[in-house]
Structure formats: structure tokens, C-alpha cells
Amino acid sequence: MELESSKSVPRSQTDTKLKIYFLPNLLTAGNLFCGFLALTKIVEADPAKGDFNHVIRNAIFYILLALIFDLFDGRVARMGGRESPFGREFDSLADLISFGAAPAFLMHHIVLRSVFSDQPRLSWIIAAIYLICGAFRLARFNCLATIAGTGGGKEFLGFPIPAAAGLVSSLTLFLLWLEERQVPVGKWGFILPAIMVFLSLMMVSEVRYPTFKSLDFRAKRTFTKMVIIVLLVACLMILWEKILHIVLPILFTVYLVYGFVRPRISRKVREEIEEDEEEENDDEP
Question: For 15-70, what is each residue's pLDDT tens digit?
């Protein structure tokens, strides 16, 4: 009898049906697929060929496209009330490939290997540290979300791995842009490895970043705000080939610095930036 009871599986583990919602998980699958495509492009890139920069640009494009999928899968799940533990775990697995393995491999293959040509071990150690810290950050997020019984709240503990991947990819894009204009990089090439190590530490840090989950495109905004947003989006769409390599690094850097500035600004300004007060004020008379 003791053997039978020890082998029996708790009924709650076998009878519980997993909630797998189609659209949010389809977007997460798009995120994972883009990460895989980015890895294949990085492997195909050969410095001896003339299309090297073009192939790397495609890899960076797929990483940035994965960011868009990652941005909308959670929003679609929250808007439809379709959040689930399965979706959170699937999202983390996709993030580890698209924003952990792909950027780490990109940096090792394109930047680190050339910067540390005399010390090849140092190049893959830096890339591995980034990947491991990203995995730690995702595991910690899932644990905290499970303990809290929510999707993680309105704050990230540590720098989000999608933002870290966006910063690494956009800076690589910026370096390619400088190289095409024959601007000598020189010792500036050591900045990216240093930034990568710093981002690795930031992902497992205690610095808090807003999730911007409360941002609602249906929310009421002032006319001036709406005009500015529309103009910025229009300029980005028209001039994206000329300004994308400059705008993206600035955006991700601002978000990185905001985590340090955030505790030092007033609560009113912080709420206006993060739109925290909209949901609270909806039920007020």
C-alpha cells in the first residue's frame, strides 16, 4: 500500500487543464520564430563576403521584430483577460532565445570576436555572462509573478531582457552605420563589451523599471500630447532608414537611465510619464 501511495500522482496535477489562448501565444510564437531567424542569419554572415553588413542588418531586424511581438502578446492577453501561467512560461522561453541567445551570439560573432582577437576566451565569456544573467532575470520574474499571483505588477525588478537586447542590437546597428561611412571606431569598439557586461548586471539588479502595462491607447489624452505622438510616429515612418540607427539607441538608453532617475523625481511627474493614475481614476465620481 505504501508503494502504491508513493507512486500515485496528485489528482490536482493530472486533472488541471492548462489554459492555452490562441492569439497571445501565436504572437509569442512569432517572437520565438524571429529569434530563430536572427540566429540563422548570424550563422550565415561571413565577413569575407560583400553582403556581410546586409545579413547582419537582417539579423538585427528580426531581433527588433521579436521585440514588437513581445510588446503585443502581453497586451493582447491582458486586454482579453487571457493571461495564464502557460503563456508566461512560453513567453520567457521565447525571450531567452530572441533576447538572450540571439543578441549574445550577435555580439560574439560581430563585435567581441574582433575586439578580443588575441583573447578569444574573453569574448565568449562576456557573451555567456549576458545569456546567463538574462536567464536568471526571467526565472526571477516568473517566481515573483507566481508568488504575487499576478502577471508581475507595474514594475520590473531589474532591467528587462527585451530592452537589453534592443539596446545591444541598436548599438550594433549604429556601429554598422559608422563603418559604412568609413568613420574609424578605434578604441570605441570596447564600449559595446563594457555595455554588455553592465546590462548583464542590470538585469539581475534591484533597480526597478516601469512596465508601462497601464498605458492604454484608448485612454483620453490632451490634444497637444496626441499631436506630438502622431508627428513623432509619422517622422519615424518616413525617415526610418536615415534616423532608426540613431533613434533606437537613444530610446533604449533613456529607458536604461530612467531606472536610476525614477526614484528621484516627484510622484506626480512619474505618474504622468507612466500613466499610472488612469485606472485608479476611472471609478472616481
Answer: 456 677 778 889 899 999 999 999 999 988 877 777 778 888 899 999 999 999 98
- Strand, coil or helix: what is 173? helix
Rg (Cα) of the chain, in Å, rounded? 21
- CA separation, residue 6 to residues 1, 9, 181 (Å): 9, 8, 69
Q: Is 39 exposed, middle or buried (0-12, 13-18, 19+ CB in 10 A)?
A: buried
| 89 close to 28: Cβ distance less than 8 angstroms | no
Are 257 and 207 a contacting pair, CB within 8 Å? no
The three-state secondary structure class of 24 is helix
Q: Which three cell numbers stand for residue 236?
A: 519615424
- Answer yes or no: are the C-beta atoms of 178 and 232 closer than 8 Å: no
What amino acid occupies position 55? Answer: V
Q: How many CB atoms lie within 10 A of CB 251?
A: 14
Count CA atoms within 13 Å of residue 31 on its CB side: 28
Q: How many helices (H) and strands (E) does the chain have?
A: 14, 2
Q: How many CB atoms lie within 10 A of CB 4?
A: 7
- Which pLDDT band, with edges at 50, 70 and 90, does 160 fall under? very high
Angle at which helices 52-79 and 85-95 pack, to 10 degrees? 170
C-alpha 183/C-alpha 179 separation (Å) is 6
CA 84-273-90 angle, 5° bins:
20
- Of 25, 12, 198, the C-alpha closest to 107 is 198
By DSSP bridging, strand 155-157 and strand 208-210 are antiparallel
Q: Cα–Cα distance between 256 and 245 in angstroms, integer?
A: 17
pTM of the model: 0.81
